[in-house]
Each structure stands twice: as C-alpha cells, then as structure tokens.
Amino acid sequence: MAQETKPRTILIADDEPDILEIVSFNLQSEGYVVITARNGNEAIELAKIHNPDLIILDVMMPGKTGFEVCKILRTLPAFEHTIIMFLTALNDDSTEIKGLETGGDDYITKPISPKVLVSRVNALFRRIIKESGSVLQIGDLKIDREKYIVTFNNEEIILARKEFELLALLASKPSKVFLRNEILHKVWGSDVIVGDRTIDVHIRKIRQKLGNDCITTVKGVGYKFQM
C-alpha cells in the first residue's frame, strides 16, 4: 500500500475577509490545509502553533504589519527556512525591496487571479530542493557544493568559481529574490570592490553554459532562480 503524503499547510494572514475566503477556497481545492489570520499578532501565534510550510502575508494589517511578522518569525529557528510570501496591493519598488530585505522569499501584488496565485504556490512547492549532504538537486540540475561540480540533464557543466558560487546561492532558495547587494556580499565579500555589471556578466555566462534561462532578473530589485 502506498504511503500517504501529508498535505502541506499554508497560513494566510490578511485583514480583508473576502481575500481570505477566496484564496482559502482555491488553495483548499488543491488539497492544501489552510489556516487564516486577520491580523499580524494572530498570524504569529498561529504560525507557532501550526508551523506551516508556507506563510502568505498581507503588508498592511492591524496589530503588526506583514513586515513585522516576517521579521519576528525569521528570528525563530523554526521559521528560518519557512517559505514566506507577501501578497499586497503595495506595488512600488521600495516596498518590495523592504519586504525581501525583511526575509520574504516572494512578493506578489494584488489584484491577482486566485488561479494564478494557486499556480504560483504549486510551482513554488515543486521547486523545493532535494538536499543530500553537499549536493543540491532541483529538477535535472545537480550542484555539488563540496566538489564544485554542476550537472544538468546528466551532462557536467564547467563553471568558473564565482559562477558556481552565484548559481549555488540562487539555487539554494528557488523563487526567492536575492538583492544585488546581498549577492555581492555573499559571493564576492565585503572586502572586494566589483563593478555594477559584474553580476549581470556572470549570470549571462551561467545561462549560456546551462542553455537555460533558469535565473530571472527582477528589474530594479535583484535575481531569482526558477526551473
């Protein structure tokens, strides 16, 4: 008898009842277990109780904003790697950057079709990494961080050291938008001064070598990995 897979749990926090109802219905129809909160304080308490696989936060909520909720949860070990997505009507670049800097993995603006949102959630879960020791596997891409070997479609791809480190960083959290400054700090370090186009050049080379546009440019913000 096949072993049953435990359904994934999603916590949605939004002070608009209509949003909660519509999004919850569509996610539940896909088989997800959905928990709802109507303010930031309730979101934190329910997150601690249920430890969801994904948390969807509105930004402007009573009690605590979505940014405050995200920041608090990221300080707790249980939520260090939990996927956190912002779903908000605020669509300016500075607010999106703030959400990502606070610890968000994705930032989606309203209005959005419930079916499109569900599709984004499904894709997000499909891209969760299989990790074994030093090896990351995302679909047909394997990254051995100890041996500095990249294999794509069973073919070894030769990357320069910084290209490898950049790919490994982005692939470590699929769909998370990494800010340019964050990438420069983690890949090149704070002691090395590089030009503004350095990341762009390395990403272009990675795309060419893989023959795949798995790295997406988020204009004015940064980059994210998507297979």
UniProtKB/TrEMBL annotation:
Which organism is this entry from?
Ginsengibacter hankyongi
Q: Where is the OmpR/PhoB-type domain?
A: 133-227
Entry's Gene Ontology molecular function annotations: phosphorelay response regulator activity; transcription cis-regulatory region binding
Q: What does this protein do?
A: This protein is a positive regulator for the phosphate regulon. Transcription of this operon is positively regulated by PhoB and PhoR when phosphate is limited.
Spell out the protein name for this chain: Phosphate regulon transcriptional regulatory protein PhoB
| InterPro entries the UniProt entry points to | CheY-like_superfamily, OmpR/PhoB-type_DNA-bd, Sig_transdc_resp-reg_receiver, WalR-like, WH-like_DNA-bd_sf
> CDD domains annotated for this entry?
trans_reg_C (cd00383)
Q: Which Gene3D superfamilies match?
A: 3.40.50.2300, Winged helix-like DNA-binding domain superfamily/Winged helix DNA-binding domain
Which parts of this chain does the entry mark as a DNA-binding region?
133-227
Keywords assigned = DNA-binding, Phosphoprotein, Transcription, Transcription regulation, Two-component regulatory system
GO biological processes: regulation of DNA-templated transcription
Q: Has the keyword Ribosomal protein been applied to this entry?
A: no
